[in-house]
Amino acid sequence: MSNESLTAGATRRGFLQSAGALAGTPLIVGQAQAAQAAVEAPPPAPSAGLTLRVNGRSHALQVEPRVTLLDALRDDLGLTGTKKGCDRGQCGACTVIVNGRRINACLSLAMQHDGDEITTIEGIGQPGRLHPLQAAFIAEDAFQCGYCTPGQICSGVALMEEARRGDCSTVTPDVRQLGAAPLSDAEIRERMSGNLCRCGAYANIARAVRIVARQEGVA
Amino acid sequence: MTPFAYRRAASVDDAVRLGLAPGAYFLAGGTNLIDLAKGGVVQPALLVDVSRLPLAEVAETPEGGVRIGAMVRNSDLANHPLIRTRHPLLSQALLAGASPQLRNMATVGGNLLQRTRCHYFYDAAFEHCNKRLPGSGCGALEGINRNHAILGTSPACIATHPSDMCVALAALRARVRVHGPRGERTIAFADFHRLPGDTPQRDTTLAAGELIVGVELPPDGFAGHAHYLKVRDRASYAFALVSVAAALDVRGGVVRDAALALGGVAHKPWRRPEAEARLVGREPTDAAFGEAADLLLQGARPASQNGFKVALARRAIVRALQTAGARS
Hints:
The complex is a heterodimer. Chain A is of the alpha+beta class. Helices cover 36% and strands 11% of the residues of chain A.
């Protein structure tokens, strides 16, 4: 895949959305709910209202308490870039950034995020305006099937900010030394360990993260 | 997940009141509870969301210890300057657990209440688990038990406590502050988690409706010589086979105080003050470390597949103490 194929306007996501039940789901509330009504709904349970701020836009939703943040993003808002892998907090495919922190959206209830600022892969970059880490993933061939990639990239973007503010990890030699330390390869691998890639593209993923970490002055 | 109601607690008192409802569970980071609910291991009637209660502070106490709010996220605690510089053992233990994403969600209070990762407990379709279905038997006793406990077990349960954070808190002699229907009380860390005995369904000594509001660390954090060693099947993002929280206060070449606790070997973080006392007043030598390890592991009774944990734990204890002693 090249940059050109992503800038041509025919993205995989766009194709799937226009071909599927969520045809052209606009990211505004009324129509998102209309799209939801066309899908088989679970038995009625008390729903409650909440507002999610996703990629800079507010969305008012009515959800049943069991709905996870992941399902609300995908099914209610049509933001299918965030992937459901294990749905049990073990694979990292559902990683999104909430109030500046990367989390597993599958283990969090939507109701817990009323008013939160959420960034999904759709808010990280756009075709033609890729985030440097997205560009590095393409340049370094950091994926095969691509299913884990949105989570990997959200994780990597948050990782840069964590490194900038001096967070430590389990491979940091001495946690007592405060302040930002350059990310070694071991640090990058450890800090990306919450994102599994069953194709095994780890070497290239780590390289893409390292390239951007150097560009951003944290490695 | 079976249907449940959701309420956001407006205050600690509100949470305690709501928490007394039948089938109520407190919800904080959700990393364990939502997972258990998805698997049908727990079927809550009501989730009381306590994650926005004002319990997210890390502050120094007048005595020079640290008071940690129950809603402090694992990543924030691990990276807090007070913890990194004065209680590095706790930072190390926190960072050894889970993944960056999960540490950003998981809270101190929730970590204390993590359920075991025993696969017989976690599989709601399996009939024999005394922890999940009291009186139904224990599948692990004669089953797949490589990951299970070697100390403090009972014929009813050989599950382990999965937390890394709690192993460091046990070694550091923390206290747990809880708020319940009858007000607030403080529980010594050693008394917070239980051994399984005949009632493995109970992990802790918390009473109905009690909410963890914080943890207190005493002033001495063993900042000079501390090491958390975690042995696991892969380099990261896995539960411990054996883990060791080890810390020494060494002055003039002599051990003045020692802190030692094990994870992955029992139903609670495993600590024995006699093992720590064995090191005090002596030079920090491998011989002394070995004696402390033997004392800590005294009475170990492995199951059919986890005999390796006894030798592994002994070596891990010695290595953790060596590493702690070599730090400066």
